[in-house]
Amino acid sequence: MTDDSADEFLALLDELRIMAKVGLRYADDPYDTERYERILELVSEWYGRSVDMPTGRFGIDLPMNSDTSRRK
């Protein structure tokens, strides 16, 4: 992967993470919540692979802002 495509891939992951965080904030349906959490898991996995770090909950622990996630 070239530096440009790696940067574009990380930008894509960032956008997906933000969309999932916003989705979690406004999701009223447990199925939507589950889907957004799954997106965060996938983003976490691919962030970890991309920067050669353990995947864990990488994307879930990255806050979009101070009050983004709303858990029921």
What do you see in this structure?
- Residues 62-72 have low confidence and may be disordered.
- 15% of the residues are buried.
- The protein is an all-alpha fold and 72 residues long.
- The N and C termini lie far apart (40 Å).
- The chain contains two helices and no strands.
Q: Biggest sheet, in brief?
A: none
Task: List the quaternary state of the chains.
Answer: single chain
Helix content: 55-70%
| Beta-strand content | under 5%
Low-confidence stretches: 62-72
> Could you tell me the number of beta strands?
0
- What integer is the average pLDDT? 81
How are helices and strands ordered from N to C?
HH
Pairing-aware structural class of the strands and helices? mainly alpha
Radius of gyration: 13 Å
Anisotropy-based shape: elongated
